[in-house]
Design goal:
15 strands, alpha/beta, four-stranded antiparallel β-sheet, 2 domains, 532 residues, Alkaline Phosphatase, subunit A
């Protein structure tokens, strides 16, 4: 393979031209038709592409997501703006790159009231807005000057008994019905179904107990083919199934009320799955998410779209569908033109790329309060990542270096989070398998991929290496590709005001983090302290 692949260089001059910032926002408004649509936004917590039945995954059971995709549009190249909850949700709500949102770029930060969010904007033109489950967060929105969650009014009164005791007891559908009961007559609604699944932790072995089978598990190439890891993935799959079950109940509710076809239903995830080298990373398993959209006759069904969609594009899309123009600050761009077209495959030539970012997740570094700052640009055949502080540890430091082969029988024991090694990776059997067998010569390469330090630049050829394991950034064969992608990324970061590209990136390291309770009367902050 050569870096001057014909179909790549043929359009290289066009696809790497930097689009002016103002051009990123959709400039057309006007609602479609005479009636404003309802909006049901279903957001899973930590769900990666391609873990859906319609995408060919056999370990999950997602008939309702599959239905939305069949009766509407399946977007194969949808990416979260960030690989963790707070930053990703901030970007979704504001329609902006998270590095523009100050504290909103960090986990457990705040989303200041000066940043417009689409639920408020829709409410201002007459929409009934609310959410159930997990809205914006984790973090403290009160210290940012807000009086309610940025996702809208909270509806979490009703509880249920989920399939396992580790799943949320929130009765999402009952709360959705409660929200609809509150709706004034003839008002359109915008509802955020914030599933808390498949966020950890899981009931170990629950997937197999539910008769899921190991043979259906496809383990990513950066993890070993161990039965304990396969079982962990089945537990994750069971939680996806529960998210999908509740989605189906909401669809039935709309159908019973005769409102299904005038409701835009969008189903996606805030970031990728909670496994090592996935969540909190800018590789595909951390940012590539499922996305399906249905809107009755307005969106022709049975279409698969290959254009690149950022979840920052959702806010301007919702606003345009409701008859509004995006705000001047939005860097996302409505993709309503794609949804309402009759086309499949590559539709909009401008949608050749997405950008992603990561800032601090926890206080996991050796000293101070810094995170692991990263930015990335993803196109069809390549992923380029810039690590701004390669001297730091991508997953945090090893706080328990003595946890080695001599203790490998204890890898299933979950340590208290504050004392965990590599704290930026969620607790899991998979994590502790890698820790327990880290000195095993077969497992050590996986351990290094998931927890080891990384160079300042990473480049992956996705045609040859879809699991993004072999970094070719130093390969002269790819020198032109790396240079073009690096230039494109840095130019756009600068144009959009990213402090990391403008020499002031340490501002993210100095923002406080917030811990519960998050109330107007108790705005407790977690004081940044040096790691022990």
């Amino acid at each position: 393979m050569k870096c001057d692949r014909r179909d790549f260089l043929k359009i290289a001059g066009k696809i790497f031209a930097i689009i002016p910032l103002a051009g990123l926002a959709c400039g057309t408004g006007g609602k479609i038709g005479n009636k404003r649509p309802n909006i049901l936004f279903a957001l899973a917590d930590d769900w990666s592409w391609p873990h859906a039945g319609i995408a060919g995954d056999r370990m999950v059971n997602t008939p309702n997501f599959d239905r939305i995709a069949r009766e509407g549009v399946l977007c194969k190249n949808a990416f979260a703006a960030a690989p963790s909850g707070t930053a990703s949700r901030s970007a979704i709500l504001t329609g902006q790159w998270c590095w523009r949102l100050k504290e909103g770029a960090n986990q457990r930060g705040t989303l200041a009231a000066r940043f417009d969010v689409y639920p408020d904007l829709l409410e201002n033109i007459g929409y009934h807005v609310g959410f159930t489950g997990k809205g914006w967060g984790p973090g403290n929105f009160y210290v940012g000057g807000r009086t309610r969650n940025p996702a809208g009014k909270e509806y979490n009164k009703f509880k249920t008994n989920p399939p396992t005791p580790k799943m949320s007891t929130c009765d999402y559908t009952a709360n959705f019905k409660d929200f609809l009961k509150d709706r004034p007559r003839n008002k359109p609604f915008c509802f955020w179904y914030g599933g808390m699944e498949p966020h950890r932790e899981y009931l170990s072995g629950s997937g197999m107990k539910a008769r899921k089978i190991l043979i259906n598990v496809k383990v990513p190439g950066f993890l070993p083919e161990a039965e304990d890891i396969q079982s962990d993935l089945l537990d994750y799959a069971l939680e996806i199934d529960w998210f999908d079950t509740n989605l189906g109940r909401m669809i039935e509710t709309l159908q019973e009320r005769g409102e299904l076809d005038n409701t835009i239903i969008v189903v996606t995830s805030d970031n990728g799955m909670p496994f090592p080298r996935c969540k909190n990373n800018l590789y595909d398993y951390g940012t590539h998410v499922p996305l399906a959209v249905r809107w009755g006759e307005r969106v022709k069904g049975n279409r698969v779209i290959e254009d690149f969609i950022s979840l920052t594009d959702l806010a301007p899309t919702f606003l345009q569908a409701a008859g509004m123009k995006p705000t001047a600050d939005m860097t996302g761009r409505s993709f309503l033109n794609i949804l309402t077209s009759d086309l499949s495959g590559r539709v909009d030539p401008v949608r050749y790329k997405v950008l992603m970012a990561r800032e601090r997740y926890t206080f996991a570094q050796e000293r101070g309060t810094g995170g692991y700052p990263m930015r990335a640009i993803r196109i069809r055949d390549f992923l380029y990542i810039r690590n701004f502080r390669p001297d730091r540890w991508p997953a945090g430091v090893d706080r328990n270096a003595d946890f080695k082969d001599s203790q490998k029988s204890a890898y299933k024991v979950f340590l208290p989070n504050s004392f965990e090694p590599f704290r930026d990776v969620d607790s899991s059997p998979t994590k502790y398998y890698l820790l327990g067998y880290r000195d095993n010569p077969i497992i050590s390469k996986y351990f290094k991929l998931c927890f080891g330090k990384r160079p300042a630049e990473e480049l992956y050829d996705l045609v040859k290496n879809p699991d993004q394991i072999d970094n070719v950034a130093d390969d002269e064969v790819y020198a032109d590709v790396k240079r073009m992608l690096s230039t494109a990324l840095m130019e756009e970061l600068k144009a959009s005001g990213d402090p990391r590209a403008l020499g002031n990136g340490d501002v993210f390291d100095n923002y406080p983090a917030y811990v519960p309770p998050w109330t107007p009367d108790n705005k407790k902050t977690e004081t940044p302290v040096k790691d022990k």
